[in-house]
Specification:
Chain B: It is an enzyme of class 1 (oxidoreductase). The complex is a heterodimer. Chain A is of the alpha+beta class. Chain A has 3 helices and 6 strands. Chain A has one domain. In chain A, the strands form 2 sheets. Chain A has a 4-stranded antiparallel sheet with strand order 1-2-3-4. A two-stranded antiparallel ribbon of chain A has the order 5-6. In chain A, a hairpin with a 4-residue loop joins strand 2 and strand 3. Chain B is built from 7 helices and no strands. Classes of the chains: A alpha+beta, B mainly alpha. Chains A and B meet through helix 1 of A and helix 1 and helix 2 of B. The structure holds fe (ii) ion (FE2) (2 copies).
Chain lengths: 106, 172
C-alpha cells in the first residue's frame, strides 16, 4: 500500500497489487476504483461551501455524502468538507491526473 | 506509483471538467433549438421549424461526441441537467439573432477549452477539439447567411413567408 496523499482527517492509498485505491475516512476505510474516485471528486467539488455560512441554505452545516453506488454514507461537517476538498485536489495532482495549481493559474 | 491512475485515464481532470461543462452547453443548445422549433411551428414558419428540429438533433450529436470521448479516455461523463429554456421570441428575426448569439457563445467556450488544454499539456483533448473548432465556423456561417438573407428579403408584406421558404436552402 502506497500513500498518495494525507490531509488532516483523510488519507488516500493505492494498492500495488490491485487496480484500486483505499480512502481512509478515520472511522472507516473504503475501497474504490478510479471511476469511483472520479465520482467522489465530482460530488465533493460540487458542494457549495458558501451554503455552510448561510443559515437559511444549510441550517446544520453538514453534508451527506453517498459513495460507491450508495454503498457508503458519510455525514461530514464544514471543516471535514474543506479538508476533503483539499485532499481530493492534492491527491489528483499526486496521481498525475491534475495539473499543478501554478499551471492552472496562468 | 502514478501508473494505475494514468493507465485508467488519458486526459487531465481539468479538461474533463471543462468538457462536462461543454456537454451541458450542447444539451442546452439542443433544448433551446427544440423550443425554437416549437415557436416556429406555432407561428406558421414551418420550414424554419424543420431547420431547428434538425439543428436540435445536431447539437445532441455534439453532446454525444464529447460524452463518448470522456468514456473513451476513462473520464467520468455527467448527464447534464438542462434548465431555463426560453420559449418566447418577438419575431422570426429574433429567433435567428438569438441562434447566432448562442453559437458565438459556444465558439468562445470551445476556444477556451482548447486554450486551457494547451496550458495543461493535454494534447489529446486539444486535438479532439479540432473538429469542434471547424464545426463552429460552419455553424456561425450558416446563421450569418440566413440573417443576411433576412436583411435582403425584408420583413414587410410577404417578406416573412419568403424568409421562411428560403430557409429551406440551409436544410441539407
Ligand atoms: Fe454544438
Ligand atoms: Fe451549434
Amino acid at each position: 500500500m502506497v500513500e498518495i496523499y494525507r490531509s488532516k482527517y483523510y488519507s488516500l492509498h493505492q494498492a500495488l497489487g490491485e487496480r484500486a485505491f483505499y480512502l481512509d475516512f478515520g472511522q472507516k476505510t473504503i475501497r474504490m476504483s478510479l471511476c469511483q474516485l472520479l465520482s467522489l471528486r465530482h460530488k465533493v467539488m460540487s458542494i457549495s461551501l458558501e451554503s455552510h455560512f448561510d443559515g437559511a441554505l444549510n441550517k446544520h452545516g453538514v453534508e451527506v455524502l453517498l459513495l460507491c453506488n450508495k454503498e457508503h454514507l458519510f455525514i461530514l461537517n464544514t471543516l471535514e468538507i474543506i479538508d476533503l476538498k483539499n485532499m481530493v485536489e492534492h491527491a489528483f495532482v499526486a496521481l498525475g491526473l491534475s495539473a499543478e495549481r501554478e499551471v492552472l493559474a496562468v | 506509483m502514478k501508473d494505475i491512475a494514468r493507465q485508467s485515464m488519458s486526459i487531465k481532470v481539468e479538461s474533463m471538467d471543462l468538457l462536462n461543462a461543454q456537454i451541458k452547453m450542447e444539451a442546452h443548445a439542443s433544448a433551446s433549438y427544440l423550443a425554437m422549433a416549437s415557436w416556429c411551428e406555432q407561428n406558421g414558419f414551418f420550414t424554419s421549424a424543420k431547420f431547428f428540429f434538425k439543428q436540435s438533433e445536431e447539437e445532441r450529436g455534439h453532446m454525444m461526441k464529447i460524452f463518448n470521448f470522456l468514456v473513451d479516455t476513462g473520464g467520468s461523463p455527467i448527464s447534464p441537467e438542462v434548465t431555463n429554456i426560453n420559449h418566447d421570441y418577438a419575431s422570426i428575426v429574433d429567433v435567428f439573432e438569438n441562434t447566432l448569439e448562442h453559437e458565438v457563445k459556444v465558439t468562445k467556450s470551445i476556444h477556451n477549452i482548447v486554450r486551457k488544454s494547451r496550458e495543461l499539456g493535454d494534447i489529446t483533448t486539444e486535438r479532439f477539439l479540432d473538429w469542434f473548432v471547424m464545426e463552429q465556423v460552419e455553424e456561425e456561417n450558416t446563421i450569418r447567411d440566413i440573417l443576411d438573407m433576412i436583411a435582403i428579403t425584408g420583413t414587410e408584406g410577404v417578406g416573412l413567408q419568403m424568409i421562411d421558404n428560403q430557409v429551406a436552402n440551409w436544410i441539407e
